[in-house]
Backbone:
């Protein structure tokens, strides 16, 4: 790293190295303090700019991060590490295509740079290109056998295939070498087949105090600890662990509920009145499954993917990427350009989406796109792909929000407080109601509780909405051994069962009830 620090004073070099170490472990406050002096004296030094870009990203300023990093890269275009950093920043901003291109270039410039191969694996995983991702991750591990993050992510991929025992063994191997590795603790917790013992709890509590643990480790370990305490019936302690983990994450980046809600309103207004229909009914082969996380959307996909005509593709990034391409083309963010679109423009975007997702129709004619936040883009889906079906998954608001609060959902900053969760849920609720009222034949509101109450009747309604004939295999969806790329991978391989958790917590969840406008808990009214 020393050659990258040329032109800086000895003091600035030390501060920059410490800032880099702080960024790697998520300690953004320390990184900012260390970088301040070097920024004042050498504001355009490429390494100073690279560190600034990392801080911008952790603070939730993705476009500033990318712009700053491009300034640094312009000075060192042949530095593989700089392409690696740009790739991770682009990925954090959701531009996975550009991220993959930058990371591949970094790997070409320096084939032995393990971190670039690891980050390439991460971005390929997020793009649901799992075979390529596994290859990149194995390459990272071959270059750096002690790269625990790559090994843990390989464990995640074992889980998606249903190989829970092998995944558990991989996580345990990582923890035996580095017991403070948060992603491995969370990997074990997220398997949902591991019941932590007292020894595991003690080890997690020790890991939280380990000086070598970074903020990301403490966040992930905190969520795993909360799961372990919940398993043991220690509900108040579990909530405390969750509050501490969410507080660490929220300190770095806060959610602006008011601005988000205004953005949803702006989208509704941009599509009023709805755009003129495209000339041909594109999208008959697509089923979008939208929801808040933890609302049963993976279960719906598993049911549909058990049909002989349906490929369950998972959480595809393609729709937001197509809209982002159009935003770049027009030089304005979505939805500011919506009113300028003509039917031919929407058809172009629809064709672009279908081209990007053609891979998922090689074996079966229909595919599902289960990216949860696509509920924000229902108006665009209807304009681009008027033939597509949209299933909006609902679950009891208290159970949904509490489940989101308990889940380690990286990048979902609205899950950190009860007030933010309630505000986000209300925006989802009003948006789905809005689009269903406008498009009742193309937007289906699926209710998880109704599915539990009468599985066959509701599954038949789902299939009928999708224009699919009934097949008995959809009733035995838990026997489907396909890859499932979501936190619910283990759950959907089990028969339907009651998953309510809020009643166990009783009045402890009254603050969340209050945020949602629900009455306080009453024992006599709780099943």
Residues:
């Amino acid at each position: 790293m020393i050659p990258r620090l040329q032109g800086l004073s000895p003091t600035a070099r030390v501060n920059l190295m410490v800032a880099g170490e702080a960024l790697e472990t998520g300690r953004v406050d320390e990184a900012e303090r260390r970088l301040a002096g070097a920024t004042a004296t050498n504001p355009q030094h490429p390494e100073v700019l690279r560190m600034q870009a990392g801080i911008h990203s952790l603070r939730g300023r993705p476009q500033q991060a990318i712009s700053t990093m491009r300034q640094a890269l312009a000075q060192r275009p042949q530095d593989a590490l700089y392409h690696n950093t740009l790739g991770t920043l682009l990925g954090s901003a959701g531009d996975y295509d550009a991220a993959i291109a930058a990371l591949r270039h970094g790997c070409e410039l320096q084939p032995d740079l393990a971190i670039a191969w690891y980050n390439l694996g991460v971005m390929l995983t997020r793009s649901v290109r799992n075979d390529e991702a596994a290859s990149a991750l194995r390459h990272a591990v071959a270059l750096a056998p002690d790269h625990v993050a790559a090994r843990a992510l390989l464990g995640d991929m074992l889980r998606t295939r249903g190989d829970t025992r092998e995944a558990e063994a991989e996580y345990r191997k990582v923890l035996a070498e580095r017991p403070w590795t948060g992603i491995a603790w969370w990997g074990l917790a997220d398997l949902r087949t591991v019941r932590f013992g007292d020894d595991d709890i003690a080890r997690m509590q020790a890991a939280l105090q380990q000086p070598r643990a970074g903020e990301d480790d403490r966040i992930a370990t905190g969520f795993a600890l909360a799961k372990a305490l919940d398993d043991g019936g220690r509900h108040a302690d579990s909530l405390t662990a969750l509050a501490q983990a969410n507080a660490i994450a929220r300190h770095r980046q806060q959610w602006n509920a008011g601005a988000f809600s205004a953005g949803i309103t702006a989208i509704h207004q941009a599509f009023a009145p709805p755009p003129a229909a495209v000339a041909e009914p594109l999208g008959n082969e697509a089923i979008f499954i939208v929801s808040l996380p933890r609302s049963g959307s993976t279960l719906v996909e598993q049911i549909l993917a058990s049909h002989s005509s349906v490929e369950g593709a998972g959480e595809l990034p393609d729709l937001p990427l197509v809209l982002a391409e159009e935003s770049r083309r027009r030089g304005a963010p979505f939805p500011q350009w919506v009113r300028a679109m003509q039917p031919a423009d929407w058809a172009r975007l629809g064709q672009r989406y279908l081209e990007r997702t053609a891979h998922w129709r090689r074996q079966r004619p229909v595919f599902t796109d289960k990216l949860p936040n696509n509920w924000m883009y229902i108006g665009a889906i209807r304009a681009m792909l008027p033939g597509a079906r949209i299933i909006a998954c609902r679950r009891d608001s208290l159970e949904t929000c509490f489940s989101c609060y308990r889940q380690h959902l990286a990048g979902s900053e609205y899950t950190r407080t009860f007030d933010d969760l309630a505000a986000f849920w209300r925006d989802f609720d009003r948006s789905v109601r809005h689009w269903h009222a406008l498009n009742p034949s193309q937007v289906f509101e699926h209710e998880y509780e109704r599915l539990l109450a009468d599985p066959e009747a509701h599954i038949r309604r789902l299939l009928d909405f999708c224009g699919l004939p009934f097949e008995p295999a959809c009733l035995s969806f838990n026997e489907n051994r396909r890859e499932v790329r979501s936190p619910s991978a283990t759950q959907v391989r089990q028969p339907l069962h009651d998953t309510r958790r809020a009643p166990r917590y009783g009045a402890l969840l009254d603050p969340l009830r209050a945020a949602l406008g629900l009455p306080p808990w009453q024992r006599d009214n709780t099943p």
